Protein: Secreted protein
Organism: Streptomyces vulcanius
Amino acid sequence: MSTGVIIVLIVAAAAVVAVVAILAVRARGPHGGHGLKRRFGPEYDRAVARHNGDVKAAEDELGALVERHGGLHERPLEPAERERFEARWTAAQESFVDSPRTAVAEADQLLAEVAGARGFPDGAQYEEQLAALSVHHADHVHGYRRVHSAARVRTGGSRDADAPGTEDLRAAMVEARALFGDLIGSSRGEPGRHRARTSGPAVREDHSRSRSARHLPWGAHRQQTKEG
């Protein structure tokens, strides 16, 4: 085989390798690197932390989530459905002062139901539902994780030391409220993750409530819920 032929074959092989590499990068598209970081936001950092700083392992995990759930289409809520969900959330918020743990448990259940109504995996499959939500509502999905974890902690006996305090429960409710607003807001054709950052104003002054109730940073007015 002549030197010229060998050179041509080497050049051709190099060209094939280059084309394959370019196609591989393009195929990853928004599933890799900066695309994943933009899409997942804080969830990207949590994934990296879960993998002890191994960025490739984290991106492989997040890329797999996009492959599995990226094609999910969220079903809009009917007006009556949305009103029922909003009324239940308002009731849960109002019950927090007297029974924080019951309110958190209701918030956890409600998020599962709203997500299911929007077309996400059923709430009985929590991990799968959470994974799908992380793909489409990455900015606020951690609120669901927090409230679900708090709702599952049992109190009584030696486990009381591990149970979240009232302030932790309140913080979980607030963060969960952001995801709830995201799901409800985006069901109206609005950009939910931006809408959710402007959740309801502070609860109105009510001297029949305890002092801590006045500092709950969510809107408990039914009127506010209807306007939202």
Observations:
- The chain has a mean pLDDT of 77.
- Residues 79-227 form one domain.
- The chain has two domains: 3-69, 79-227.
